[in-house]
Design goal:
618 residues; alpha+beta; Neutral Protease, domain 2; Pdz3 Domain; nine-stranded mixed β-sheet; binds zinc ion
Length: 618
């Protein structure tokens, strides 16, 4: 409380002391994937350095797309000034402000990519819609905390397009929007979703704070949500109230982009989230299930990640490196809470939830990279692992603090419930740690010891050892305690579970990792080979292309038929593969039939898992 109050006072006094920086962003050419911007920056004569935002909150890495900053021109008092990029810091631009000048005029273009990989620096615009991330279209004076810099932003959207954002609006006229002055922190934390086909749905009508679902799509048809889907998102709002007991935003805005031609990801903000998924994700039942965890996860971040943030990630500007060591709390706990809110809200049923949990556990069990890399190292190395390749991912490990964080916090939840004989749960921890008094956005940084203290206030236990042994030591087994003590067992079936079938369809993959040890793209290219699996023992490599199975041209159907017909036999399966220009046949010794993970009820224990995922809000 003290920390946030002082930040607020600094912001207010600075706002009176200095004229805000003027920023005009012209997104009229968004459909051409080029966005124009201009700034008016109050300055004093002498050497001056501008920074392009580098470390983007929520992306946990130096992902600011500085290579796409173009057409940079700087002038003062009507004269063009020479600028010079720093030799070491590619994001810093030096300029000499001439005597007598008190304002810099800066103009720039942002070249928005068509490439759909990456996060906000990936594809963000189509002919029908665009997401404006302010960090991509501005510069800021070096050396000033983002809380103390005020910006007055104007946005021009293509004519006929509407928009949604959490950034408070001062006035609107035609396709020009003038926003109220805001700190650089709030501005960058408040992207704008705009589009030709845009629909806004209120999720908590009549209640304060308000919640909005803004949907922009490549077609009107994609905005045609069923009343059930709308009711489930309204329930999600109620369930977060029941879970956290307080809200730390003025209003909350889900900014949902429905397009097959933008990057797909979610990025959390304090008062909104930038949620980008398939065009059919709100209307087609399978696509809807596949994307059902996205909004719950990003919404949870308003509490866990934005309001409560690891001190190493609560940096004063966009230049200081972020430290990801506690991402297993920032992302891992969010993954757990988002995943249990999905069935609590009705977005998935209990069986679909358990199918997802079984897949998470099975994949972590199949990760030989566990025997060299502790979970914590995946968090520390997040900034390099987000962009790591699919091949040999099971040996390298990837951003495992998401799925393993889910298991770890389920383990903690079940442990609290067991120790307290069902009287307490992780929901109580969330009220202590993330709740408090509702009000304006603020950041309360924390260290691991604060989390341990809050856990102990709910249920005394040696939480420090509980967490440390699961996080910073090498453990070949993932934390399975939540599933096992929650009354369920990981088993394997021949029939593909519905959520895995949907995942195969939505990702265009063929998942054979639990049988042969292969993950394939639809066209037969091998995404990954699981180490120590039958395919690995046969010598197969990621990146090669599977052409034929037992002499017959490869399709998903053909390989499943071969797996089934080889069941219980001794003859190996012959896989013809093209690797570069070389054709080679691998003999894979596998006779166990199709094999997929699912959770089986263990009647010897109480069904804690079902208690966790039942609806909690009235
Ligand atoms: Zn997240």
């Amino acid at each position: 409380m003290v920390r946030s109050l002082s930040i607020l006072l600094v912001t207010i006094s600075f706002a009176f002391a200095q004229k805000p920086i003027g920023l005009t962003v012209d997104a009229s050419d968004a459909a051409q994937r080029i966005i124009h911007a201009s700034l008016k920056i109050p300055v004093s004569p002498g050497p001056f350095t501008l920074e392009y935002p580098k470390w983007i909150p929520g992306e946990h890495g130096p992902t600011g797309p500085v290579a796409d900053l173009a057409s940079l021109r700087i002038s003062a008092a009507g004269k063009t000034l020479a600028w010079r990029r720093d030799d070491v810091d590619m994001f810093a631009i030096h300029v000499d402000v001439p005597a007598g000048a008190n304002e810099l005029e800066v103009s720039l273009d942002y070249l928005s990519p068509a490439e759909t990989t990456g996060f906000t620096s990936g594809a963000s615009a189509t002919t029908e819609l665009a997401v404006v991330s302010w960090n991509q279209v501005l510069l800021y004076p070096q050396g000033q905390p983002s809380n103390s810099l005020q910006y007055r932003a104007r946005l021009i959207v293509p004519s006929g397009w509407s928009f949604g954002t959490a950034l408070p609006i001062e006035r609107e006229s035609g396709n020009t929007v003038d926003f109220a002055p805001a700190s650089l922190t709030t501005l960058i934390d408040s992207p704008v979703l705009s589009g030709r086909h845009l629909r806004t749905i209120e999720l908590s009508p009549g209640a304060m704070p308000a919640h909005y679902l803004h949907l922009a799509a490549d077609s009107d048809a994609a905005l045609n949500l069923s009343p059930e889907t709308i009711a489930e998102y309204k329930q999600l709002v109620s369930e977060t109230g029941a879970l956290f007991g307080a809200r730390h935003y003025r209003s909350y805005h889900f900014l949902v982009t429905l397009s097959d031609h933008v990057a797909h990801f979610g990025l959390e903000h304090h008062e909104s989230s930038d949620d980008r998924t398939n065009e059919a994700a709100m209307t087609d039942e399978d696509a809807r299930r596949f994307a059902s965890g996205l909004l719950p996860h990003e919404f949870v971040h308003s509490w866990n990640g934005k309001y409560r943030r690891p001190a190493g990630l609560a940096t004063p500007d966009y230049e200081q490196p972020m430290k990801g060591r506690l991402l297993w709390i920032y992302e891992g706990l969010t993954e757990y809470l988002g995943t249990i809110l999905t069935p609590r809200s009705g977005l998935l049923n209990a069986e679909e939830y358990r199918e997802g949990l079984a897949e998470t556990a099975a994949n972590l069990l199949d990760t030989p990279g566990r025997d060299w890399r502790p979970l914590e190292d995946t968090a520390v190395a997040a900034q390099v692992l987000y962009g790591s390749r699919d091949d040999w991912e099971n040996v390298r490990r990837t951003v495992d603090f998401y799925p393993e964080g889910e298991l770890l916090w389920l383990d903690a939840d079940v442990m609290i419930r067991k120790l307290s004989q069902g009287k307490k749960s992780l929901d109580d921890f969330c009220k202590v740690f993330h709740g408090g008094k509702s009000g304006l956005p603020e950041v309360k940084p924390y260290e691991l010891s604060d989390v341990v203290t809050a856990l102990n206030s709910v249920q005394p236990y040696d939480w420090e050892s509980f967490l440390r042994t699961r996080v910073d030591t090498i453990r070949t087994q993932p934390p399975m305690g939540g599933i096992v003590e929650g009354g369920w067992k990981l088993s394997y079936l021949e029939a593909i579970p519905s959520m895995l079938r949907i995942e195969e369809e939505e990702r265009h993959w063929v998942i054979l990792r639990y049988s042969l040890g292969l993950e394939l793209n639809e066209d037969g290219v091998i995404r990954d080979v699981i180490r120590q699996s039958p395919a690995d023992k046969a010598g197969m490599a990621p990146g090669a292309k599977l052409l034929a199975v037992n002499g017959r041209q490869y399709t998903a159907k053909v390989i499943h038929a071969a797996i089934q017909s080889g069941k219980g036999k001794t003859e190996p399966m012959e896989l013809l593969v093209k690797d570069g220009e070389i054709y080679k046949t691998f003999r894979v010794d596998y006779h166990g039939g199709d094999r997929y993970p699912y959770l089986e009820r263990d009647e010897s224990k109480p069904d804690v898992l079902s208690e966790i995922i039942r609806p909690h809000a009235r």
